[in-house]
Every structure is written in C-alpha cells, then in structure tokens.
Amino acid sequence: MRHHGEALRVEGGEPALVDRLASGEVPIAASERLRALVRFSRELTVLGHGQCERLVADLRAAGLDARAVHDAAQVVAYFNYVNRIALGLGVELEPCWGAE
C-alpha cells in the first residue's frame, strides 16, 4: 500500500482519499462509480467468490460497461497475483520506498 499510495499521490490523488483507500474504507464522498470499484476490488480480493453477480450488477449500475467490468476484474486479479508472489517469495520493497 505504501508504494501504490505514494504513486497515487504523485499522480494527483487527494491525500485523504488515498489514506481512506489504503485503510480499506469505501470513501463516502467519492463518486458511486469509485465506491462500486472499491467494493468490487475489496470483496473480490477477500471473498474471491459468492458475491460476483451482485458486485458486477453494482458496477453496471454505476455506469461501467462490460469492457470496464472485465478490465476491473483483470486489474484486481493481477495485483492479487503479484502481491501473493511477492509475499510468498519474501520480496522486499526497494530501498527508495522504505520499510514499515
């Protein structure tokens, strides 16, 4: 989270929003689209199954088309994969990112 949070801040992300996202909270003041994407990402990461129809329906209701839903699922799955490989192999952050 430290690495990606800092990258989001550099790209112009609002610091309070970045902090809330890093803590796993769904930002109340965010758009419905962002709230739906955060819920989808968190639940797909934690649950991995069982809630998909409802989550996809929420994304569609928030204005995402089939391509955008597909892309969101791909990004979430990719980051879950990469993070598990890094954790499983004990990969450390580069020195420039510091350690927590």
Verbal overview:
The protein is mostly helical and 100 residues long. It has a domain at 30-97. The protein contains 5 helices and no strands. It has helices spanning 2-10, 15-22, 32-46, 52-61, 66-89. Helix 1 (2-10) runs antiparallel to helix 2 (15-22), helix 3 (32-46) packs antiparallel against helix 4 (52-61) and helix 3 crosses helix 5 (66-89). It is globular and about 40 Å long. The chain starts with a helix and ends in an 11-residue tail after the last helix.
Please write out the topology.
Blueprint: H1 2-10, H2 15-22, H3 32-46, H4 52-61, H5 66-89
In short:
By secondary structure, this protein is an all-alpha fold. It has helices at 2-10, 15-22, 32-46, 52-61, 66-89. The mean pLDDT is 81.
Features:
100 residues, mainly alpha, 5 helices, 0% strand, globular
* Overall radius of gyration: 15 Å
Structural class: mainly alpha
Find the count of extended strands (DSSP E, 2+ residues): 0
Main pleated-sheet profile:
none
Q: How much is the average pLDDT?
A: 81
What sequence of helices (H) and strands (E) makes up the elements? HHHHH
Oligomer: single chain
Specify the number of helices.
Answer: 5
State the separation between the terminal residues, measured CA to CA. 10 Å
Helix percentage: 55-70%
Would you identify the regions where 5 or more consecutive residues have pLDDT less than 50?
none
Shape: globular
Classify the beta-strand content into a percent band.
Answer: under 5%
